[in-house]
Design a protein that fits this description.
alpha+beta
Length: 88
Amino acid sequence: MTGMVCFKPGRRSRLIYAIRQYRGRKDEPKGFGWRDFRDLVVRAWIQLEGPIVLVWDNVRLPLTAGVKEFIKANAEWLTVFRPSGLRS
């Protein structure tokens, strides 16, 4: 399970999340990949109807080329902060 706690001034907070069930099938991913991360952020953006400021905290997904490209391509509505000391 992965999720985001979302806050928007003047509105109630939201929890937007995704669940992945691992069934042990061949070639089935055990965890979330960068595309799953991308899809979750895009769903949040659609639901919140506005820009997103994301604090990247304790995410086990490294900053791969795909993630970096996604963040850069969507800089108009997506800002990402990574607290210092976190490894990627």
